[in-house]
Amino acid sequence: MLCPYCEQDDDKVIDSRASDAGRSIRRRRECQQCDRRYTTFERVEKTSRLMVVKRDGTRTPFDPEKVLKGLQSACGKRPIPEEQKVSLIREVEEELMQLFEREVHSKEIGIRVARQLKSIDPIVYIRYASEYFNFQDLDALSKEVSDLQGEAPIFSTQSDLFNK
Ligand SMILES: [Zn+2]
Questions:
Q1: Does the pTM of the predicted model rise above 0.85?
Q2: What is the pLDDT of residues 66-98, one digit of tens each?
Q3: N or C terminus of the chain: which is more exposed, having fewer CB within 10 Å?
């Protein structure tokens, strides 16, 4: 930091604490040149705002609320506690933040929500999957979800049914 008194860039932080409910950091600094003290406030920023690439190629900021709403509508009246939905979305968000730096395809989000739902409620899982993805894509989705889980697909393809 440039010292506001002598404009030298040579300071020592002597104290730092969170302020504004953790949204900023207040630092007490001491200039090593003129020994004067001053205070700085630094805003805590979300480092990278993840952008979602939608099916039509447009981009929109990742919004966990939106993902939650999609999940809620798929749940309908199924007895899944709201808490569980929220923590599911949080887990998906954390995974996305770790795996993707700037952009994530909406499909990647859907797959991860679907994967979690599979173990919570198969009915909601299928509802969510069929709403989130084209029905024609269901085979592909089923395979992708299975690949993630290392399991056999739970949907059988039309051709499988006819071949039996
Ligand atoms: Zn100074």
A1: no
A2: 999 999 999 998 989 999 999 999 899 988 988
A3: C
